[in-house]
Amino acid sequence: MQNRKKGDTRAKFEKRQERIAVMVMILCVLPILYIYGKFFMNAFMNQQTGEWTFANFNFFKDSVTIGNSVIEPIGASMKNTIFFTVIVTFCEVVFSCMAGYALSRLDFVGKKSLTFSLLILRMFPGVLLLIGVVYVLMYLKIVNTLFGVIIVAIAFRLPGSSFIIRNFFMQIPRDIENSALVDGCNRFTAFFQVIIHLVKPGIASTALFAFMAAWSNYLLFNVLIFNSKTPVLATYLRKVASNDEMIGDYGIFCAMALIYMLPVLVFFFISQKQLMKGNISGGKGI
After folding, report:
1. Are 101 and 172 in contact (CB under 8 A)?
2. Are 275 and 203 in contact (CB under 8 A)?
3. CA-to-CA distance for 174 and 251, rounded, in angstroms?
4. 184: alpha, beta or left? (left if phi > 0; alpha if psi -120 to 50)
5. Going by DSSP bridges, is the β-strand pair 69-71/64-66 parallel, antiparallel, or unpaired?
6. CA distance 85 to 146
7. Average per-residue pLDDT in the chain?
8. Model pLDDT for residues 226-243, shown as the tens digit of each residue
9. Which residues of 95-108 are buried (b: 16+ CB within 10 A; e: fewer)?
10. Taking a C-beta distance cutoff of 8 angstroms, is the pair 169, 101 a contact?
11. CB atoms near residue 156 (< 10 Å)
């Protein structure tokens, strides 16, 4: 009876603490929810009349004229952003999987030094390398091109992605791979038929972060592209936000921002379960 009573008392205390924690969390979240609520309302609302409308999304097919400024349709920026994001995400996932597998399974000279070099490069801010990167791209004659930005984006993200995916491969017992080799697979088929399915959380985490970084990339396009021939959504929004006459029409700006953030939300909800598993497992194996 005494043990049960103590247990009941402890449960009540825990429930009271949980209620307090939930109340504090709600109070902290309410301002954020209010901001997002106003954001969605402005995207579908006429700023002059207050009526609900889809007129703020006319930038998909028509130019938007605000005062003396003309904002071109978003089609070219959307096309370049999708192309850039797909290429960078695909290359980062493929190259990081190959590098992570090699670092976790193969033995070669300098393996330990290379592994810790990836960790150091992951912590090193890439913005400090931009001046040197510009000179390298100028020497290769690919500066001011979308191809040059793709190469730099992959190079900046690859060390961190390789180190993360390497930790997932380290958690897979070698006996599983050895069993596949005994059953008739070579190392190539064992990787694609067995091992790759066991690191899906790591691939989902790498793909999601690569997608988010590529989709919202602003710095590289602002530094490595010297003209407006290769517009992307980040520079498109910058053009809109930097226009003194445009900043007054928050409805159009919120509509553009909503289109900008929608693919990231969709991609996140699709890979949410795998991402949570990846966050739990990705920090091991250092």
Report:
1. no
2. no
3. 56
4. left
5. antiparallel
6. 11
7. 81
8. 776 677 888 787 777 665
9. bbbebbbebbbeee
10. yes
11. 23
